[in-house]
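Morning!

This is the sequence you dropped in the shared folder:
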Amino acid sequence: MDERPLQLIDLMVRTGFYDRDQLIEIFCRERYAPGDLDEAEVTAAVDASVAALRVEQASWAHPTDCDRLDAAFAAMRAAGVVALQNAGFTQSDGYDDVRDVVRLTTDPARLVGYCFYHGQDLERAVEGRDLYLAFGPLDPKLEQSAGLAVGHTIVAALEAQGLSVAWDGTFEQRIAVQDLVWRRPVGW
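The structure's back. Tokens below.
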């Protein structure tokens, strides 16, 4: 197998969001056309990457930045923000996921807004770059008023967990979680 698929497999394992079968599916049928990669080689690469990550996990100090991020997202949800991690692969997918959550919620009146990052944002964060968060009110007409309040709620939740945040205080700029060291354990 070429180096690029191996690098992508390692990156996807390190996200911590996918189990073994999902990773094999992603690489054998989604990211690459069916038949482009040998499934046995993909499986071996996934297993090797997981084994290496599990060795690394043993030396991680806790809480990790990902633990802090999870706690911040839980605080956002408690404050009425639809807070989603790894929401689709693109920003458009993330908005679709937010709409799905809102549509299925049993108490929509308590929801004040949304916050998410998508798969492309996640990949950049795993590579050591800033994690960008989309946010806003549920009603797009309130972006400049309620949207800013949602942004402040998100920043407060992140900072309460000791995460470094950059945001210019406007709706035109996504919130950036800076200096994040992506360490999410393999859960399977």
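Headline: The chain has a mean pLDDT of 95.

More detail when I'm at my desk.
O.
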